[in-house]
Amino acid sequence: MDVRAGFCAIVGLPNVGKSTLLNRVLGRRLVAVSSKPQTTRDRILGVHTIELPGETPPRAQIAYVDTPGVQTGRGPLRRYMRDAAIAAAEDADVVLLLVDALDPKSKTAPSPDGEANDSDMHALLAASREHPLIVGLNKVDRLAKTDLLPMIQAWSALAPGVEIVPISAATGDNVDALERVIASKLPAGPALFPEEMVTDRSPQFIAQEIIREQLYHQLGKELPYASAVQIETWTERRGELVIGAVIVVERESQKPIVVGKGGSRVRELGIAARAAVAEALGKPTHLTLFIKVREEWSQTETELRKLGYGGDPS
Ligand SMILES: Nc1nc2c(ncn2[C@@H]2O[C@H](COP(=O)(O)OP(=O)(O)OP(=O)(O)O)[C@@H](O)[C@H]2O)c(=O)[nH]1
Ligand SMILES: [Mg+2]
After folding, report:
1. Element housing 231 (H / E)
2. Does residue 17 have its Cβ closer than 6 Å to ligand 1?
3. Which ligand is located closest to the Cα atom of residue 18?
4. 80 & 142 share domain
5. Are residues 171 and 37 located together in one domain of the fold?
6. Residues 39 and 138 in one domain
7. CATH code at position 89
8. Which atom of ligand 1 sits closest to the CA of residue 70?
9. For 3-7, 127-131, 208-212, 275-279, which range has the lowest pLDDT when averaged over its residues?
10. N or C: which end of the chain has fewer CB within 10 A?
């Protein structure tokens, strides 16, 4: 049977809640979330099917694409992340521009004719000009009610016909309404993915994301920007997953930060990550973490590719 089906790119500045929203609609932890900007480094697909009672067709399959927060910056890793976001907006059927309603800068929408300091936002808007644009005003759980209406009016001026939907990805408030708005913009046709498919990412990738998320949580501001996680070994023994993962940092001096006093940090990290991986993949898990130094990995394309960030981000 036909459904409404298509791609919805979730784009926006770093830290606005894009990955939190994807995890919320999928009802599971697929991607890393943290209070540190630029947590997401790659495009990630998450497929969600919703019912549309009384409509024809009565279901929609929304293929969400979570993207890295767009920010100007130098170096191959930042450039790669920026290109991944802009390409996702170009390819999508619908673009969801997520905005942090708590950020004072969100009180006004970027002006359509462009300002130099907003160059990435404008690159995104240009990329999404071909597709319906929805603005999600996120984090309204912590926004004063009186601030919301002026913000909705300000963002309505962004483009003709743009829909503004206030949500809270953290509490789930109004997220179902947002999904219906997204669905209404998708073309009717055959489903794009098999019914049971949630993501195109492997269990290895999901484990890697969860370990990286724990790394962000445990280290907070002390975390070196260019740290990465790589799965080195992956076996299944009598129903238990046995994983060996490496935390990659760029300099010898960063190693003690991750290890902590007498190894306390990496131990805590291992315990939390093991539990989260076991929960996400639904299997008992044994996790061993190693720390490695790979000089200036984020500066060289070959090292980036080794860590899974190179090549075509599709
Ligand atoms: N209060 C509140 N906080 C939220 C909400 N959604 C996300 N957050 C918080 O905002 C921070 C950033 O969330 P992420 O989902 O990692 O943001 P992102 O846009 O994916 O960030 P990047 O991947 O770095 O671009 C986290 O601390 C979240 O807990 C929300 O609806 N309300
Ligand atoms: Mg993210």
Report:
1. strand 228-237
2. yes
3. 1
4. yes
5. yes
6. yes
7. 3.40.50.300
8. 25
9. 127-131
10. N
